[in-house]
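Lab meeting tomorrow. Look over both lines:
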Amino acid sequence: MTITLKAFAAAAEACGFRDREFDVPEGDTVGDLVDLLAASYPGLLPMRTDLLIAVNEEYSETGRRLADGDVVAVFPPVSGG
């Protein structure tokens, strides 16, 4: 199945892209995708456990199963004042 990944801020810098389509196995979860990204893009490793993930514009937990056509957004931890 195919998903669209949108990376923002430092996550985009670590991945080297902002938008990209990925083919993932049927039944994969958000956590599986994060594992794949961390293995493929080592720059994500320092922020891996703190990444915020949204699926179809809703924040998601790592156990959520992905579906064909999902749009997954990856955000690094943010702070501000």
In short: Residues 2-75 form a domain with the Ubiquitin-like (UB roll) fold (CATH 3.10.20.30). The chain has a mean pLDDT of 93.
